[in-house]
Amino acid sequence: QVVGHNIGLVREAGVEEIRVLLPSDTGIGEVSLSLCSAPEVNRLEIVGTRGRITADWQMLTVLTTRTNGLPSAVSRFGGNFATAFDLTSAGIRTLWGITTGKVKRYQGLRTIVEQFYEALRAGAAPPVSPEEGLLNVRLMDQIREACGGVQKQRPLPTDGPATPPRILVTGASGFLGGRLVEVLSDQKTAVRATTRLLSRARRLPGVQWVQCDLNEEESLRGVLCDIDTVFHCAALCGAPGSLPEYQDTNVEGTKRLLQLATECGVRNFVYVSSMSVYAAQREDGPPLDERSPLEPRAAERGSYTQSKLAAETAVLEYARHHRSPRIIVLRPGTIYGPGAKLPLGRFQLPSPSSRPILAGSRRIPAGLVYVDDVVEAMLAAARNGVPSGSVYNLVDRAECDQEELARTLEQVSQGRIRPVFAPYPLVWAAMLAVDLLSLARSKRLGTARYRLHRTLAPMRFDCTAARKDLGWQPRVPLAIGLARTLHHDVHPAVGA
């Protein structure tokens, strides 16, 4: 028996909540899946005649309760202590597993796929028997069919305007690309929007959705047909993902798209880079402009920064050696707005959302930019005749720091969110412990201290070039932007 339900919180999920009952002669099992909470609910409970077992895949715990013949009052009283003991033991085992590297951030299918191929190489038994695999597939098919009545309807790849669009937006189901597509739709501009998963697409007037992967040349060639302007927003930016995967998508995918854009006669190519490409700034140094030094230790910053810097370098190198398309690079700060996480500070430690703990001084620049202001800069870059290879910083106000951000957050939330600042030396000591733990696990000292140093560097950005060349001016004040992000207000279209 299957029950599916949608609350409307997870756009890309066909069904957000699923409950499955699996009855047998002497007990019943219940599988619970929910994407509407954080962390997600992923739990199995088996209730039988001799007790119950609850397995939680998010918390990595298994709780077992057995019937013992004692009076119910005694069982209730003692059961709480037994559960507390089991949870404490599970927590200690999980902590030890994380410390030794046996428990990873993403266990899931990636782990079992590795085990499967390792078993093939070693000639050993697979981690899942063929019988168990077949049973699992049959059950999944039954669950899928039972949820068919509540599954969300998706726009088809052929939906869109009658005439071929002249604008292409990659990563159109993401935060920035999605907002750009909304704005173009509001302006009655035909647009072709690409996404890796059509389940993330939204039905919008004048928008033609196409499923596309940056690593597939033929699909890229098809979406570039009849296109004049490309807004390249697609990028791999969150875990899980190895460095080769980041390189394939962010670097090689961008180079492939750019080469094919030339072959297909695209005239304008707007590439969205990142402020993370800059080297750390001294506290007494001038604001960073587009000619400031770039990050020399990108590998220590992580796969995202390393791949974005390599991609931007490749894009600008392409612009120097090719006359077409005209290439414009934008380096926005931390983009926020409805649909994104609330910007709380530069470096947040694990803490409650109502009392977020932020690292470092209150005077550290926030480096924020509202999503609509970024969209306006993208449209201006495509319209204005600035030279190919031009680069522009995009930040709302260089003077905005963590103190102003915290104060404004408290105001717009009516006191519900009150950031707490942790001293830098204390956080540095915690990062040192993380680095030493990495040394014990992988025989190599970690880079957590450098990431902390780089993230909390007093970096202020000069946006004079964007104001002068593009006529760009940030229009959404911090308080309004934070209020819209917090309350998911409907905001007006850019340029309307």
SSE arrangement:
Layout: E1 2-5, E2 17-23, E3 27-34, E4 41-48, E5 51-56, E6 61-66, H1 72-100, H2 108-122, H3 130-146, E7 167-170, H4 175-186, E8 191-195, E9 207-211, H5 217-223, E10 229-232, H6 243-263, E11 268-272, H7 298-301, H8 303-321, E12 326-332, E13 334-336, E14 348-349, E15 357-359, E16 368-370, H9 371-383, E17 390-394, H10 402-412, E18 420-422, H11 424-442, H12 448-455, H13 464-469, H14 478-487
Parallel strand pairs: 7-8, 7-10, 8-9, 10-11, 11-12, 12-17, 13-16, 15-18
Antiparallel strand pairs: 1-2, 2-3, 3-4, 4-5, 5-6, 14-15
In short:
With 496 residues, the protein is an alpha/beta fold.
Task: Kindly describe this structure.
- It contains 14 helices and 18 strands.
- With 496 residues, the protein is an alpha/beta fold.
- The protein has a seven-stranded parallel beta sheet, sandwiched between helices.
- Helix 4 (175-186) packs across helix 9 and helix 10 packs across helix 14.
Helix content: 25-40%
Main β-sheet description = 7 strands, parallel
Amino-to-carboxy terminus distance: 50 Å
* Rg over CA atoms: 26 Å
Mean pLDDT: 89
What is the beta-strand fraction?
A: 15-25%
Structural class: alpha/beta
In the sheet with the most strands, the strands line up as: 9-8-7-10-11-12-17
Number of strands: 18
What are the segments in which pLDDT stays under 50 over at least 5 consecutive residues? 489-496
Task: Estimate the global geometry from the Cα principal axes.
Answer: globular
